[in-house]
Amino acid sequence: MPITRPGATRRRRILASVLGGISFGAVFICAAPSLAGVVGAHLIVRNQLVPAQAIIVLAGGYPIREREAAAVYREGLAPRIILVREWLDEQKSAAGNYEPYWQSRHNLLVRLGVPPGAITIADQSACMTADELEIAAATLEETGRPVILVTSKYHTRRVGLLWHQIEGDRV
């Protein structure tokens, strides 16, 4: 019968657990890009752009979304761009010298070639995407005509579903 030192069995279990964890981590790291690609592909929806009554640019992702919106505008797919104010802007503006986020976004769109008169700033402010979409929908002049929603690629499915709940098929 072999003689074992006290605690040797415990150390072996700990070593086996650590090695098992490292092995699992290595497999996970190797598989993660594949899994991320599958999940990411499900989140991204690519719709064919058609002429629309407006381009709604959701907040966040500055300046990428604004650049995309300006490019779509310059293609002539919609006559105006809608931005929604953020509730946090109101809090910061009231506190002192602060340029609101919507103003920075507006200024960038103008620098990118969108005429100031083609940019509509909604009167209300939003604190989440669903609010932002509802406010933008209320800003639209016509019902039944499509809009172009500009957001991050990985938000396209969620934003499309939210828009469909608010406005039906106008996207």
Features:
alpha/beta; four-stranded parallel sheet; 171 residues
Write the layout of secondary structure elements.
Elements: H1 8-43, E1 55-57, H2 64-74, E2 81-86, H3 87-95, H4 101-111, E3 119-126, H5 129-139, E4 148-150, H6 156-167
Parallel strand pairs: 1-2, 1-4, 2-3
Helix pairs in contact: 5-6
Task: Explain the overall architecture.
The radius of gyration is 25 Å and the shape is elongated. The protein has a four-stranded parallel sheet, sandwiched between helices. With 171 residues, the protein is of the alpha/beta class. The chain contains six helices and four strands; from the N terminus they run H-E-H-E-H-H-E-H-E-H. Strand 1 (55-57), helix 2 and strand 2 form a beta-alpha-beta unit.
Taking the sheet with the most strands, its summary is: 4 strands, parallel
Helical fraction equals: 40-55%
What structural class should be given to the helix and strand makeup?
A: alpha/beta
Mean pLDDT comes to 82
Q: What is the straight-line distance between the termini? A: 77 Å
